[in-house]
Amino acid sequence: MSVAAAYAMSAPDGQFEKLMIERRELGPRDVLIDVKYAGICHSDIHTARDEWGSAKYPCVPGHEIAGIVAAVGPEVSKHQVGDRVGVGCMVDSCGVCGPCLANEEQYCDNGATMTYNTQVDSSIQPGGYTMGGYSTQVVVTENFVLSIPEGIGLDVAAPLLCAGITLFSPLRHWNAGPGKKVAIIGMGGLGHVGVKIAAAMGADVTVLSHSLSKQDDGKRFGAHHYYATGDKQTFRELRNRFDLILNTVSADLPIDSYLRLLKLDGTLVILGIPENPLSVRSFILAGYRRALAGSMIGGIAQTQEMLNFCAQHGIGAEIELISADEIDGAYDRVVASDVRYRFVIDAATI
Ligand code: NAP
Ligand code: ZN
């Protein structure tokens, strides 16, 4: 057993406080990672503030982890001490079900073990549930540890472990590329990385944001078009336009208005996960044979493919680096859509 420092919330309306947590002894296939950077995903906020209704306290969020291998178990073959590595939203899965065998561990039939807030045996995480990357060290089985290619800074790579793969996976699945019109709703942590990746894939990229306030940034990230959803004219002008729309918004949206922007056989993919159910008028789907779908992060092999793709195309997240005692303020700014474009915690300050 080793001891790590971490930042945790102890109640839904609490504040982050430092505490010491235990990490398991290294098993034969385990990797001990010195965390260098941890991104703040909106899912951390949904969980820590118990908006999804299953939070366990003290809650140590963090599933956008970048760091350096500090030690490895005797049977580890994929990583060595000193390697630049990352950990995303999952730290294990059953490995034998259909989705796992298809490299889609995030859809494991037996439930993937998420990086934080998943109940596990206390031999896996002392305390009985997983604790994430707002911490100085994590222990993860080698198959769930990604290699971060040289050429991407660890700080700007951290957000790719969740935000990057969450956008890369549906862009690949629905064949974004030359000749495809892709819209991304919401240009926050997920959305801004999605703009960069979709543009690098060669798609024609449109951002649908509250307002035009981030338009210059959107164009710099590679968007070809940028529209304000606060302007009703946007919905008239873009009707039946897109092959693929990715919704990254963390709040409830009038989804019918966005479905109308899909062309024949277009698909709107739900990525943002607000607490309330969606409501959709059947006619809007039936007309134009539109599809409404969802997608959750991506498998481990695809996450590695995404990291390699980002390194090749010079893609990292746009970040604001903060110290651990600034997490509460950062959460408030994310909720107020005042983030440019991902907060990343410098783990040296934990
Ligand atoms: P974020 O940084 O807060 O970005 C969300 C964006 O949504 C904001 O920047 C804003 O964009 C827009 N927005 C926020 N509130 C809005 C409102 N009331 N009305 C309209 N637009 C609003 O959050 P994130 O980290 O990207 O995460 C987004 C969502 O994805 C969260 O619900 C998170 O839990 C979920 N998520 C899902 C997966 C998955 O696997 N499916 C993975 C990670 C995260 P504009 O200012 O441009 O309008
Ligand atoms: Zn996330």
UniProtKB/TrEMBL annotation:
<dbReference type="Pfam" id="PF00107">
    <property type="entry name" value="ADH_zinc_N"/>
</dbReference>
<protein>
    <recommendedName>
        <fullName>alcohol dehydrogenase (NADP(+))</fullName>
        <ecNumber>1.1.1.2</ecNumber>
    </recommendedName>
</protein>
<dbReference type="InterPro" id="IPR013149">
    <property type="entry name" value="ADH-like_C"/>
</dbReference>
<dbReference type="InterPro" id="IPR011032">
    <property type="entry name" value="GroES-like_sf"/>
</dbReference>
<keyword id="KW-0479">Metal-binding</keyword>
<feature type="domain" description="Enoyl reductase (ER)">
    <location>
        <begin position="14"/>
        <end position="350"/>
    </location>
</feature>
<dbReference type="InterPro" id="IPR047109">
    <property type="entry name" value="CAD-like"/>
</dbReference>
<dbReference type="InterPro" id="IPR013154">
    <property type="entry name" value="ADH-like_N"/>
</dbReference>
<keyword id="KW-0862">Zinc</keyword>
<comment type="similarity">
    <text>Belongs to the zinc-containing alcohol dehydrogenase family.</text>
</comment>
<dbReference type="InterPro" id="IPR020843">
    <property type="entry name" value="ER"/>
</dbReference>
<dbReference type="Pfam" id="PF08240">
    <property type="entry name" value="ADH_N"/>
</dbReference>
<keyword id="KW-0560">Oxidoreductase</keyword>
<dbReference type="InterPro" id="IPR002328">
    <property type="entry name" value="ADH_Zn_CS"/>
</dbReference>
<dbReference type="InterPro" id="IPR036291">
    <property type="entry name" value="NAD(P)-bd_dom_sf"/>
</dbReference>
